[in-house]
Amino acid sequence: MTPEAFYGKNDKICDVCVITFSFKVIEWALKHLKCEQAAEIGCSNGNHPIYLTEWKGKKIAFYMSLVSAPAAAACLEEALCLTGCREYVVFGSCGTLNSQLTDGKLMIPTWAYRDEGLSYHYIAASEYIELKNWKRVAAFMEEKKAAYVTGRTWTTDAVYRETSGKAEKLRKEGCIAVEMELAGLQAVCEYHGLSLKAFLFASDCLQEEEWHNDLLGTEREWDTQEKCFLLALDLAAQACTQA
Q1: What pLDDT was estimated at residue 217?
Q2: Residue 5 has what pLDDT?
Q3: How much is the pLDDT for 185?
Q4: pTM
Q5: Sites in the chain below the pLDDT cut of 50
């Protein structure tokens, strides 16, 4: 089974695609940017449009992904089929495992702990997978003078089983964040020979015995999502130039 079996073969529409997980980002983009719907990822839960916009003279696609590694990977597989894009920029919220280190900073994942199942269907088994473009993302943040920190991330399927013991173990291994997609997305990109650039921001904290919310679901989170989307568009435009 391939996406082409369902969608057929499609013409390439641009080189780079931005992936968000926030419907607020899509609402903002449709309100503030000149966009056209170029394709649509089909889903029984509701279809997800892929939009095309121009940013700093470059054509860039973007869409809202479903959450979790299997769902995000399926969206990426279908986006590849529908757009022909070989470069992807993904950003989103995460839980911090070290608030002293990440407070007020973006996070650039270097390696992802593969505590999900999707990646093992694409590449050989290992504990971690490298986010191979992390140094390029760091260089971009340097150019933008954006505060950031680098470190490992923990990709998990089980949002309600992020136990304190597991968090402490991975913290000692250098993990600074927990999220649900990056190991899977990187594995899909490696399998297909695609480029993935990723960065995160903390919306909640798993540093203490009890989980606590900092931004998740607040107006401050929506504001941060929008600012990160603009950074992602700039990173995508840079990727177009380098392609």
Answers
A1: 59
A2: 85
A3: 98
A4: 0.94
A5: none
